[in-house]
Amino acid sequence: MSRVLITGAGPAGLTAAYELSKLGLEPTVLEADNLVGGISRTVDYKGYRFDIGGHRFFSKVPLINELWDEILREDFLVRPRLSRIYYRQKFFDYPLKAANALAGLGPVEAFMIGLSYAKSQFFPQGDETNFEQWVINRFGERLYRIFFKTYTEKVWGIPCHEISADWAAQRIKNLSFREAIRSALLGATRTEDGQVITTLIDQFNYPRLGPGMMWEHCRDLLAARGHETISGVRVERLRHKHGRVESAYGRTSSGEVVEFGADHFISTMPLRELIHSLDPLPPDDVLAAANMLRYRDYLTVVLIAKREAVFPDNWIYIHEPDVKMGRIQNYKNWSPEMVPDASRSSLGLEYFLWEKDEEWDWSHERLIELGIKECAQIGLIEPDEIEDGTVVRMKKAYPVYDQGYQENLDTIQHYLETLSNLQTVGRNGLHRYNNQDHSMLTAVYAARNIVGENNDVWSVNTEMEYHEEAKTPAGTGDRMVPQKVTVPVSDADELIVETFARLDPLALGVSLGSVTGVLLFLATVILLLKGGPVIGPRLGLLGNFFFGYQVTWTGAFLVMVQGAIGGLILGYLIAVCRNWIIDSYGYIIRRTAEAKASRDMLDKV
Ligand SMILES: Cc1cc2nc3c(=O)[nH]c(=O)nc-3n(C[C@H](O)[C@H](O)[C@H](O)COP(=O)(O)OP(=O)(O)OC[C@H]3O[C@@H](n4cnc5c(N)ncnc54)[C@H](O)[C@@H]3O)c2cc1C
To answer: What is the pTM of this model?
Structure first.
């Protein structure tokens, strides 16, 4: 039976092991930390449980939903979502609601926002190469500065004008955008079996004790089947020969180096680290490409407050520009079981940093002090209400999509393909900004590749639809189970074109011209053949419109030619006007649909 060694007990590593165990292989997982779950872990501090961020469980991939249900069973909760933006000591609903936003900002600001929106619609920025231009063209500059700029720059640590517009477009370029267009054109969509498409923006699944519960269950299920997850072992070296990895060398927390042999290897460690662990090292260009990959780091300050309820939201985006905190989580509102004492609340203050930032090395005490000060500064909670706190750092939380990242990835992927029994999967394993579901999917594919399938893990999330919609059985209040939607997928533009076929001006002109010319010719000829004392007095009135026309044989030819020319011009103009109206309508529909699809844009930042 094949032995498979997996590096990392995050969602991807454990999923790979779980799938392999189903396939009858022998997986072993090596994890550097003492906890499982990777970035999707749940940390326990004196009974207060918290995530790295706040992990909603949603997926469009049925396979993943089945896996989550299978692993966690009845411990999966359906939670209502409430999240707001905090700006200038006021709360704004998020996703934004026009009336609420305008009421909070006041009539003068609302007017200015209206003007700036109108400007962006009438005079959009032409090139649209960066995120800033992309958002301004859809929401106006003022709304962008208030609701998008600060948070996005806090998360990514680079100015919005340095973030590629493709990134924004990609984050919403999915079925929700097409769906918004489709519903604008055709009304609400149902799947083939009559189910209505709804959105998971309003509620989501969450394990009773946080996301780590899912991964602890998974580890336990593996253990029950005899497959080990060994914690506290960091893989530092992968020895390979003749295109095959032969052994992994892991360092234990006591510094001992242990060798693990296997037939196949699956890695979820960050690509940069993986490349540097290869022995012998890859060529210089591959090392250089790996060194160019960048990661954004993340730190959370958890404050325990002596208050039963601090705010009703799951999380709040903090748009105050003069505080460093980007978002604040209230874990009790994710699941009541995240706190051991119902009279207390635990808040997770999220800081997005580079490891080289000075705050990264601050002591716990100093960071907790910063957190308390910032909470008081923005008026969320008083310092004397905080009775305890802790800090958790998560390096490499976000793989950065900068200018050259794709080229570097191509170089690395190309090289890794030369090692036939090594596969890399997961978020940092593929340097993809994946949520759990796609991280897991790559792992399932890699496991199946070992038994003979031929899946391309690198294509997951570039070819697969991904969005936060689900189908709910119409008319039932059942728990939402996200599943793949069976709506046919086509590009937005194609959809508009499909619905309103454009007219070819020349074709319409030629057909209208020919029909007009022939009809007028025939009408004249019929009257001439009929004969009589006065031929065609009424038709003769056409002489007012057609040069030299009389009901004569010459007139028949004259009217045929002129009718054909007139019909051609008229048909051409009709088609041009209709196309222009359709283009304008399509533009409005596209913009409205984009705005609708990007209404949870901050969730995707
Ligand atoms: C702030 C934030 C919020 C998020 N919110 C959501 C959400 O709401 N919903 C959602 O689905 N996803 C969310 N995600 C994404 C989710 O966390 C990731 O998709 C998922 O954790 C990736 O799983 P993974 O196994 O690929 O990687 P990781 O979770 O990074 O796990 C990799 C594991 O490998 C271990 N490892 C690394 N190097 C070595 C080594 N050399 N030797 C041994 N072990 C090693 C690490 O310790 C780690 O345990 C969020 C992420 C962040 C940062």
So the answer is: 0.80
